[in-house]
Amino acid sequence: MARPAAPARPEQLTAHGGVSAHRDHTGTVEMGIAAVRRVHEWIPEMPAVGVLGSDYFQKGLLYQLELPVWHHDMTAEHHYEPWRAEQTSAEHLGWYARAELRYAVLRKHRNTFNEALMTQRDLLPDGQHFDSRAYAEFLVDTLARGAERAAPIPPAFVALYREAAATASGDVRRRLGIRVAVLEAEAGTTERYVADAIGEFAALTRRWPELVAAAGRLGSDGDLGRYA
Is 1 a residue whose pLDDT tops 50? Predict the structure, then answer.
């Protein structure tokens, strides 16, 4: 059965405090999406360790459901931990190199999944009801297709950093050299690491509505000691 057309929504509105906001169709919004609508009750964000960009599944689902995402131009002050801001040690440079490579592979999987999901609109019935288990199963089903598209990424990533290191000098060359060494060691295991992270995310998503409901039954007073 064809999905009914979504009701028309304005392209611009006035948000709290008179701030102007416009409809985001292209992914301008990057942060602050988790509490929007009820999407956080349908799926979690991916709890992947050491993978940049793993926290965009909820926002992506809003686009797929044709639910509005709004962007405003207000600024916010964001503070990184010193180790993230400075990246002065070899350990921290290596951490980011691995996290970036894993993100590049994850992004290809996510794009493949989103493209396939848009052909299975019965999994996205409307903005009120959502089948978390079907979403998780479909994600797992698309892993093989994503893997085919992601396979060339690790060697290309390594080659790009090698080229950059070869043309650099001084401290920049030293820092790039650290990244190259880490990426060379990581490239062969990245695809498996990301696939495992996707599998864990799918397993959590299958049970997510039950976990949310259980949390609601426990209460929201913040006294976790009562439930220990």
Answer: no
Q: List alpha helices for the chain, DSSP H.
A: 39-42, 57-64, 82-86, 90-117, 132-141, 143-150, 153-167, 170-218
Closest CA to 103 of 154, 138, 148, 141: 154
pLDDT of residue 94 exceeding 50, the answer is: yes
Q: Retrieve residue 95's tokens.
A: 């951490």
The encoded tokens of residue 100 equal: 């970036």
Residue 70's DSSP bridge partners are 23
Q: What are phi and psi of 47, to 5 degrees?
A: -85, 50
Instruction: Return all residues near 24 (Cβ < 8 A) that are at least 6 apart.
Output: 69, 70, 71
Length of the chain measured in residues: 228
What pLDDT digit, counting tens, does each position of 26-64 carry? 777 766 554 456 788 889 989 888 998 888 888 888 877
Q: Which residues contact 132 (CB under 8 A, 6 or more apart)?
A: 42, 43, 205, 206, 208, 209
Cα torsion angle, 14, 17, 20, 22, sign: negative
Mean pLDDT for the stretch of residues 3-19: 72
The Cα 89–Cα 99 span in angstroms is 16
Buried b (16+ CB within 10 A) or exposed e, 138-147: bbbebbeebb
The total of other beta-carbon atoms located within 10 Å of residue 19's CB is 11
- The rounded mean pLDDT for the chain is 83
DSSP reduced 3-state for 52: coil
pTM, two decimals, is: 0.80
